[in-house]
Design brief:
This protein is α/β, with parallel strands linked by helices and about 220 residues long. Helix content is about 40%, strand content about 15%. The chain is globular.
Length: about 220
């Protein structure tokens, strides 16, 4: 039985894409750039917000200066509007409760900036005792670098072999592999099943409840 399950946040625990799209479009619009349809955003997210802004900016405008200008417009807006349309995926609250009842530790490892990660987890899962909730922090490389997973393993006092990492993207599968942790891909998130399959994770599940079986 696994002792720890580490979850990605966006596209795994929460469907946050509409709020991310709305906030990015707000920043683009404010700076005079064209906006994107909601359907474009699942392939822009996953590598942290600076990479999101770089992908959202028009060709020829993807400078570090413009990324920072986007960030300055995005963060105050997103901090207010990050729970407007975001919702847990079906079965996720029940899954977290079941894991907690079994004595399995749960944690979050996200490329979303730390402030928003903590706020969203506390808002949507107030009854869950997470061992660690880590987002993107200054000086810590984003996933797929395994640093965030290694920090969680240390906090939980659990070895890599006794942990399961759950995510919806190739970035997540790479992160698990580089951390030496068994990977579980979920098909309800932002990226297609084929992307998950290309990284050959130990598990791919279509329903939240199936993650319990992956812990055995």
């Amino acid at each position: 039985m696994k002792q720890l399950v580490i979850f990605d946040l966006d596209g795994t625990l929460l469907n946050t894409i509409a709020d991310l799209a709305q906030s990015t479009n707000h920043a683009l619009r404010t700076l005079g750039y064209p906006v994107h349809e909601l359907s474009a955003y699942p392939f822009m997210v996953g590598n942290g917000i600076n990479k999101l802004f770089e992908r959202a900016l028009p060709d020829g405008e993807k400078s570090q200066e413009n990324v920072l200008r986007m960030r300055a417009e995005f963060i105050p807006y997103y901090n207010v509007h990050n729970a407007d349309m975001s919702r847990p995926y079906e079965g996720i609250p029940e899954l977290l409760e079941q894991l907690q009842a079994k004595g399995i530790q749960v944690a979050v490892a996200s490329n979303k900036y730390q402030e928003a990660t903590v706020k969203l987890v506390a808002h949507y899962f107030p009854g869950i005792r997470f061992t660690a909730v880590l987002g993107q922090r200054e000086g810590i490389p984003v996933k797929p670098d395994p640093a965030i997973v290694k920090d969680i393993l240390e906090e939980a006092a659990v070895s890599a072999v006794d942990a399961l990492y759950v995510g919806d993207s190739g970035v997540d599968m790479q992160t698990a592999h580089q951390a030496g942790v068994e990977a579980c891909g979920v098909t309800w998130g932002f990226r297609p099943r084929a992307e998950l399959e290309s990284f050959s994770p130990a598990h791919i599940v279509d329903r939240a409840e199936d993650i319990i079986k992956c812990c055995e």
